[in-house]
TrEMBL record:
The gene is LOC113700968. CDD domains: HAD_CbbY-like (cd07528). Gene3D superfamilies: HAD superfamily/HAD-like, Putative phosphatase, domain 2. Belongs to the HAD-like hydrolase superfamily. DOG/GPP family. It comes from the Eukaryota. This is Haloacid dehalogenase-like hydrolase domain-containing protein At4g39970 isoform X1. The lineage of its organism: Eukaryota, Viridiplantae, Streptophyta, Embryophyta, Tracheophyta. Keywords: Hydrolase, Metal-binding. Coiled coil: none annotated. GO terms for molecular function: hydrolase activity; metal ion binding.
Amino acid sequence: MASSSSSFTMLLSAPNPSLSPSSSRTTLSTLRTTFLPTLSSSPSPSPFSPTAITRRRGKSLLVSAAAAGALQALIFDCDGVILESEHLHRQAYNDAFSHFNVRCSSSATEPLNWGLEFYDELQNRIGGGKPKMRWYFGEYGWPTSRIFETPPDNKEDREKLVDIIQDWKTERYKEIIKSGTVKPRPGVLRLMDETKASGKKLAICSAATKSSVVLCLENLIGIERFQGLDCFLAGDDVKEKKPNPSIYLTAAKKLGVSGGDCLVVEDSVIGLQAATGAGMPCIITYTCSTANQDFKEAIAKFPDLSDVRMCTGCTADSQIHKFALCVI
C-alpha cells in the first residue's frame, strides 16, 4: 500500500531515445520523475494480509481475508483481468500517434511509438490514457502534429490535443475489440456466474474510457451479463484515476456495502493500491507484464481464475463465516 509521502521515483526506459529531451543518442536513457505516491519498500502490514495462501493442485484450499466480514460483493477490474488488453491499447495508441503524425522532437524522423517494455512500465505506473499522455508530453516535450503544427503552449490547447488523440485511440481500440479475435481470460465468466447465483453483488470498475469498456464487456461477457451487473463504473465516472481509491469508494456507495465486505480482482499494483486504499481486500490475477510486481498486500495471486471458485458452504476452514473463495 502506498505510504503518505507525496512522490516517488519512477524509472522508465525511453521508448524512442531520439525523443528524449536530454539525449539524442540511440541508447536507452533512464527517466526519473515524480508522479504518484511513494511505493514503500517496507509497507505497513495490511489488514487484509492472508491467513494462509497456498496453491495446491488437486486440493481444495480456502482463501480468506483475516479482517473481512461476510462477502457481499465481488468487483472486477476490466483490462488485464477480464481480458489481456495491454498490447491492444499500445497498438491503438501507436496507431493514433501515426494517424496524427505526433512528433515530440523536431529531429524525430517518424511519429511517436511506445515500445513494448516502455508501455508495460508506463501502464503499470500511471492509470488512464490521458494522464499517460500528459505525463509523457510533459517529460519529452509537447509535440507537433496534424492537430497543431506547432507544439501547444497553453493548457486549453494541450487538453484539446490530448482529448482528440484519446478519442481517436478509443475508436481504434473498439475496432480491434469488434474484430472478434479477443477472448475473456480463463475462469472469468464462470466466477461471475457463480457470484450472481450465490446472491452476491457483482460489479466492474475500470479506469478506461466508458465507451470502450462498454463495447469490450458487451463483446466479451455478453449483453445479458453486462446488463445484470449491480454496478459498473469507468474512468469517466470519477475525477481521479487508480491508484486513487475513488472508483472503488464510489462503487461501494452505489452497491450499498462497506469496503470490507467487498473483494476486488485486479491485475496490477496500481489496481491493488486503489482497492486497499478503499478498504477492500484484493486478489491478483497477474499478466505477463505484471507478474513480477510486488503484490504482498494482496490476499492471494493467481495466473488466472481457472481454479478459483465461489465458496458456498465450504467447511475447509473455521473462518467460513468470512468471505472466501475455494481454489481447486
